[in-house]
Design brief:
With about 260 residues, this protein is α/β, with parallel strands linked by helices. The chain is about 35% helix and about 20% strand. The chain has a 7-stranded parallel sheet with strand order 6-5-4-7-10-12-13, with helices on both faces. It has a 3-stranded antiparallel sheet with strand order 1-3-2. A 3-stranded antiparallel sheet has the order 8-9-11.
């Protein structure tokens, strides 16, 4: 692996998209050197090269956090309340940077004495000012489109914890492929958070359940038997195999 490969991955993850010229300036090398280094990275699907720029693989499929916080707000709020009801006092939580996780953080503001580790500046700031909470921000460099960190420091901080729950999200759910995202950094972070948690909670709204294959979908780590899937509508019989050993949680029907 080139000595620049990891630095390029972290820089692209931070910016989402960066020109070859700007990347060369940051690394103090020539444009030609950047093109030579990134070619095998593009071939491996780690990044994409378009019109003189480098971008995160699949980044075009994930809109900015501000846009995702608006999409399906009511459904995400329902899921967030459902997840918050599962969290006991004094719990230790690892929370990913998904927009649904942002709603979960809002729902958790009524809790006290939580210990939270997250790579999302949005989630960290939401929960850090609640009396009794201890919140740890994982990472130093924040991506500009979602205020999330995926640098080496983020993974090092996560690895130091042992959590009761990892609260995770996905971009799509396919009946055969499982829970999917568009970014390899998110796969790696999900794997890290899943590994430190006694139980995992996958929070996905009904719009994510789809038979359509995403462009270059990346699979999240498999959930373990007994792990929780929280959603706002039953996904239907096509997902029976995927959910067979999982604990599917749905909101209670509202009384008239």
């Amino acid at each position: 692996m080139s000595k620049y490969t990891q630095e390029i991955l972290e820089t692209v993850a931070l910016h989402g998209r960066i020109s070859v010229t700007e990347l060369a300036r940051q690394l103090d090398v020539t444009d030609q050197t950047i093109r030579r280094i990134v070619k095998p990275m593009v071939d491996q699907g780690l990044i994409e090269k378009v019109h003189g720029a480098i971008m995160s693989a699949g980044a075009q499929n994930d809109p900015p956090l501000s846009a995702r916080l608006i999409e399906n707000r009511q459904e995400k709020a329902v899921i967030a309340r459902l997840v918050a009801e599962m969290i006991p006092p004094n719990a230790i939580l690892a929370i990913d940077a998904g927009s649904t996780s942002g709603f979960v953080a809002q729902a958790l503001t009524r809790h006290r004495n939580l210990t939270v580790v997250t790579n999302s500046a949005y989630i960290a700031s939401t929960l850090a000012m609640i009396e009794g909470n201890r919140v740890f921000m994982a990472g130093t460099q924040l991506r500009n489109h979602d205020c999330a960190a995926f640098d080496r420091a983020a993974f090092d901080v996560i690895a130091q914890f042992s959590a009761d729950f990892a609260i995770m999200t996905a971009s799509l759910v396919h009946p055969d492929l499982g829970f999917l995202v568009h970014d390899q950094h998110e796969v790696d972070m999900a794997r890290e958070m899943a590994s430190i948690a006694a139980k995992r909670i996958m929070a996905v709204d009904f719009s994510k359940w789809s038979h359509v294959n995403a462009d270059s979908p990346l699979r999240l780590p498999r959930l373990k038997p007994g792990d929780i899937v929280a959603t706002n509508e039953h996904p239907g019989p096509d997902y029976a195999d995927l959910l067979r050993d999982l604990d599917l949680r749905l909101p209670r029907p509202q009384r008239d």
